[in-house]
Amino acid sequence: MKKYYLIFCLLFLNKFVFSQKNIFTELMNYIPKNIKLDSTYITVGKERIKNLNYLYKLYILKRFESGYQLDPKDKKKINQQIDQMAVSLFSEGKNILFTQVGGYGSCTDKLIDSIKINNIKILNLKLCHTCTGSHRDDEFVTIFNNRMCSLLKIHPSDRFTYFLNDGTFQKTSTISNIKMTLNKDRSFKFWEYKKDVLSNYSEGIWKNSGNILILNSQKALGKKRTSNNWIHFNNTKWQIKKNQLFSKKNKYWKLKKTTNSSFTFSSKNL
Hints:
This protein is of the alpha+beta class. It is built from six helices and 13 strands.
């Protein structure tokens, strides 16, 4: 029985991975309906490359740009077309962001994830790289993601965003206990207890600008908070230093990270 169950699981997994690869390939080769089908071309050696109107071709050209020894004007054309692809896909409701995976950790992640940022549904496509090729996709990802984030009105991720994602930050003392959680969907919750009694509570949306965390409170629908414990954060800033958050609003609020995924200095991800 166990043998048949194992075979079933392996077949299901293979089918799932195959299905993901198909969807990934379809999206990378998809030509948006409103993309400009003009005579734009670039020159690679003696060959003219036309139809710069789908992601995969732009991705390959950008990835091996230095090897192709492209003319500066052609490099500019590719950058403009990557930017235009983000605009065209957004206009069709295809909210896509890229993340780079691989290196020493290998490419074991799923090729596609469905994520939410600021309550916006986004398809996260994974680009795999080798241990020595991580830099090759940087510019493609930066150009596309920055434009898409601008259209979605969300702040692009950087290395500090990954430090904050799914992080729990706390302070424990004889006077008060503070806890703050920061979720990947850019929502946060904040609690402060004094002598085991809730004195301050807030929830809302977070973002970061470099090493500065910014909180904006938003009361969840259907939830009522009394004025006795609700604290409103309005562009309230916290500075990130090493493994801690330092409030610029209250000098006593110094929180230490207790959990989240390991801090990465890579700025290439979502």
